[in-house]
Amino acid sequence: MNPITLDVHLHVEDLGDVKTIACELAKFFQLGETIMTAISDFAASQAAFNTRMDTAISGLRDDIDALNAKIDELQNTSGGITPEDQMLLDDLQAQGDAMAVKLEALDNLTPPAVPAA
C-alpha cells in the first residue's frame, strides 16, 4: 500500500487559528488510527472465520470419503439386496442427509456479500 502524503499550506492570522488547526489535525489523525484499528480487528476476525471454514470443509471431506467407502462396499456385494445391503443403503441415505445439513450450516457461516458503494 502506498503512503498518503498531505501537504497543507495555511495562512495563519493569530495563535488561536494555530490551536484550532492543531486540534482539528489531532482529530483527523485519531480518526485514521480508529480506521486502522477497525481494519486490524476485521482482519483478525476474518482469519478466525477462515479457520472455522477450513475445519468445516475438512470435516465434509472426511464425510465424503466415508460415504464413498460405503458405496464401494455396496457395489462389491453380489446377488440380491440382503438385509445388510439395505442397512448400507439406509446408512448412505442418512449420511447424505447429514452432509446436506452440514453444507447448509457451512453456507450460513459465510458472511453476506458486501453491498456495492
Word description of this protein:
Helices cover 75% and strands 0% of the residues. The longest helix has 61 residues, at 15-75. The model has no long low-confidence stretch (mean pLDDT 79). The protein has 117 residues and is mostly helical. The two termini are 21 Å apart. Helix 1 runs antiparallel to helix 2.
The structure class reads mainly alpha
Strand count, sense and barrel status of the largest sheet are: none
Inertia-based shape: rod-shaped
Helix content: over 70%
Q: How much strand?
A: under 5%
- Mean pLDDT value: 79
Tell me briefly what this model is.
The protein has 117 residues and is mainly alpha-helical. Helices cover 75% and strands 0% of the residues. It has helices spanning 15-75, 83-109.
What is the topology?
Layout lengths: L14 H61 L7 H27 L8
Helix pairs in contact: 1-2
Task: Note the main attributes of this structure.
single chain; 2 helices; mainly alpha; 117 residues
